[in-house]
Amino acid sequence: MSIYLLLKDKYGYTGGYSSVARYVASFKQEQKVKVTIRFETTPGYQAQVDWKEKLELVDSSNAPYMINIFLMTLGYSRMKFVKLTFDRTQSTLFECLTSAFEFFGGTTDEILFDNMKTVVDHAKSDFSNVVINEKFVQFAKDSGFLVRACLFFQLISKRYGKKSTIITTNMPFGAWGDVFNDNILASVILDRLLDQAYVVKIVGESYRTKYLAVNKKSAG
Question: The domain that contains 106 carries what CATH number?
């Protein structure tokens, strides 16, 4: 409605609201398609593990109970393994991972996790240093994979679907693999970051550069 009123009051638009609404809807869909980025990944190199949102179900007597959804996604094929559980304890996580390895016929070289407390030792970690739980480190060693826990991924994962996030960057999405030095990690982050996102591309002189130039001239 705000766009329609702006066009009408400032630019003298005489058309109907429905025409503006249809155009805006098609533009939003076009932007979503444009920001879908995929990186080529190596088969067997990396997978991503998440606990999805809890699901509330009822039994035959209408008593409610909560179901957790474990999801493991292969980075190359995007093939997924899903398992329903009643809790998110570390032993349950080990069981889910073992079941996923059996389903896929093995594990990947690396597995990317978010900030789940059964993987990351929160008491010993801070934003500049992530410490993996010792018991989980041993499980990963025995299973034959490396644990990856990216702080930026953890931030995006925690806010995904719950909070609004504004990010400014002068790097095209296709170059984020170079930024993180990992194409697969960049792809996983962009998958979440760009889902239901609106991308505003600003073309022209940098306001930051212009501001610095004015300050430098004033100081001189």
Answer: 3.30.420
